[in-house]
Amino acid sequence: MAAESAYAAAGVDIVAGERAVELMKASVAASHRPEVLGGLGGFAGFFDASAFARYRRPVLATSTDGVGTKVAIARAMGVYDTIGWDLVGMLVDDLVVTGAEPLFVTDYIACGKVHPERIAAIVSGIAAACTAAGAALLGGETAEHPGLLGPDEFDVAGATTGVVEYDEILGADRVRPGDVVLALASSGLHSNGFSLVRHVLAEAGWTLDRDVPELGTTLGAALLTPTRVYAKDLLAIIAAAPVHSISHITGGGLANNLVRVLPDGVVADLDRATWTPPAIFGLVQQLGGVSQPDIEATLNQGVGMALVLPEGSVAAAQEVATGAGIASWVAGTVRAEPGRPARVELHGEHPR
Predict the structure, then answer these.
(1) β-pair type (217-218, 58-66)
(2) pLDDT digits (tens, 9 = 90+) for 96-111
(3) How far is the C-alpha of 48 from the C-alpha of 29, rounded, in Å?
(4) 0.85 cut: is pTM over it?
(5) Cα(69)–Cα(198) distance, rounded to whole angstroms?
């Protein structure tokens, strides 16, 4: 029997890492775009930038993010192929709200011990979500951190790069009084607010295998519902209808994210009566006794994206959203408030 290497004795298994790379190669290759040069295994990924020649003034956009404490739910459930969708959703959907087309993604997985099948499952989810977003999974890193992370602990993060024409960048400067706010439904909690969610459930003594009739599934399955990846559908909406700005509703909730894409001198009035948040949001709020302001400042409340656009663009935008299977509704309007910082006001109550 060969002697154990010093690195392996320290807790780093190079053979397991190589096995993980072999297992993920096919799923990564399936995400590649024509501009990708070479394959997996090099020190860097290559993307042919000559594709930018068709742009008048190409501007690169970039975003980085992680999955957060939702990985604790995945680990407890033993389900690893969905959090890749959460990662890609957090990355490319922060990018696409500027009008940029996501081109490629790189990922970083830190773990206490490399379990090849587990790493391959995580990467397969990332690759599948990249394909859905039209982006290539260009490369990544799996780092084994024994002594820093437990054998079953891991974290996932990544970065993405996209491109947009300079004069087509969306943002607050385009918004005008009289615009409307079109909401696109989320698939659930997405990948934000899980520190609150996990705390509430732990305090209530609810286990992940608990069947919850109002959710139609177990608690764990509902919590692991993957983040919706909007990128391709939002680009289609932008192509079909004039859109002024878009907000990705992530950590901080609807009002705190929407105000980021509004100019000073306007206020967006949103009516809670225009939608009913999915059951998981009410469940967390009731179990934890969380106030309305707190829940709205933490969770997306069923809104994944908020588009600010002229009223005349709504029908075309909704036609594309409906064709993509995304529920949408007019949640409010933008009005002038000269001399004041931009703000968002929520009025009324959600239907019960």
Answers:
(1) unpaired
(2) 999 999 999 999 999 9
(3) 16
(4) yes
(5) 9
